[in-house]
Amino acid sequence: EVHLVESGGGLVQPGGSLTLSCAASGFAFGAYSMSWVRQAPGKGPEWLSSINGGGTSTSYADSVGGRFTISRDNAKKMLFLQMKRLAPYDTAEYYCAKGWGPRALEGDWGQGTLVTVSS
User: Fold this and answer.
1) Residues 60, 48: contact at Cβ < 8 Å?
2) Strand locations in the chain, DSSP E?
3) How far apart are CA 10 and CA 30, in angstroms?
4) What is the C-alpha separation between 97 and 2, in angstroms, rounded?
């Protein structure tokens, strides 16, 4: 059974940085692409970024490219999202998801970690 547990969310001021983590279990983590998605209050889910199984290829949504960096540690079965220059519109529940690209929205998600960007 796929099990994904996100952590690292919290309250951050505009312009600040935060790193999210996702611990994976129940599947061959290194064999799968992984993604980060988010859902802002009152809005639909949004795909943010993906990384392939080997960590050699990444993709980003225009909304976060240049500010967010996805990475993974296959030995530890961990996925990360470094977020910089955060803005209030980045406030959302953030989820790690199994799969590549926007299709990851249709796959397995974790329970989420809340990021609030506010002064």
Assistant:
1) yes
2) 3-7, 10-12, 18-25, 34-39, 45-51, 58-60, 68-73, 78-83, 92-98, 113-117
3) 28
4) 10
Beta-carbon contacts of residue 10 (< 8 Å; ≥ 6 apart): 18, 114, 115, 116
**Which percentage of the chain shows pLDDT scores above 90?**
96
Contact 107, 98 (CB under 8 A): yes
- pLDDT of res. 29: 97
Query: Is pLDDT above 90 for 107?
Result: no
Rounded to a whole number, what is the distance in angstroms from the first to the last CA of the chain? 40
Query: Angle at the Cα of 93 (from 46 to 119), degrees rounded to 5?
Result: 110
Query: Which stretch of 8-12, 13-17, 64-68, 114-118 has the lowest confidence by average pLDDT?
Result: 64-68
CA dist 118 and 18 (Å) reads: 13
Burial of 78 per CB tally in 10 Å (0-12, 13-18, 19+): middle
